[in-house]
Write a structure and sequence with these properties.
Blueprint: H1 2-9, H2 14-42, H3 51-63, E1 69-74, H4 81-100, E2 106-114, E3 117-124, H5 137-148, E4 153-157, E5 163-167
Parallel strand pairs: 1-2
Antiparallel strand pairs: 2-3, 3-5, 4-5
Helix pairs in contact: 1-2, 2-3, 2-4, 3-4, 4-5
Length: 168
């Protein structure tokens, strides 16, 4: 859908067409990575990379070949397998959302652990949300999964001030 939209916009709005192509690229990479992860899980193999490396790779794949910038401060956290997959998939979803919905050009990702509590922060410099934040499929899924794992999730945003998600 993003590439079809880009084809329609290419002549009249090349910048927006470029954003659509970038978004499609991010979505395709994330889908491929999820497929690989599913194949590994079906084969009985868990994730082999430390969480820090996996998240850094997701960020690099997302910004590679784009003008999008990302800073990160990621601790060497070792969560259980289900939390590992949730955190990686949440970073993917939040980066894609920031680009697609917020037109973000910069991200900050932080992962830290304090005793038995893991905290993930993803913030962007996108358009932000005017009024109440409406949870779509992705945000709702992140909130529900964080609660299922015994944690919480907070979304914050202001119009023109980006979007921030804190998962604990």
């Amino acid at each position: 859908m993003q590439t079809e939209a880009a084809k329609l916009l290419i002549d009249d709005n090349p910048a927006e067409a470029k954003n659509r192509i970038i978004s499609a690229n991010v979505q395709a990479r994330n889908a491929l990575e999820q497929m690989r992860e599913s194949v590994h899980l079906l084969a009985g193999r868990g994730s082999k990379k430390p969480l820090k490396e996996e998240i850094e790779e997701v960020i690099a794949q997302t910004v590679d070949g784009t003008e999008i910038k990302a800073r990160c401060d990621i601790a060497a956290v070792q969560p259980p397998e289900e939390a590992y997959r949730f955190l990686v998939n949440s970073v993917k979803e939040l980066l894609a959302n920031g680009i697609r919905h917020g037109k973000a050009t910069a991200f900050y990702v932080e992962l830290k652990q304090d005793k038995n509590c893991i905290e993930l922060l993803v913030s962007d410099n996108g358009d932000g949300v005017k009024g109440e934040i409406k949870e779509g499929f992705g945000l709702k899924g992140i909130r529900e999964k964080s609660e299922k794992l015994g944690g919480s999730c907070e979304f914050s945003s202001e119009d023109g001030e980006g979007f921030e998600v804190r998962i604990t």
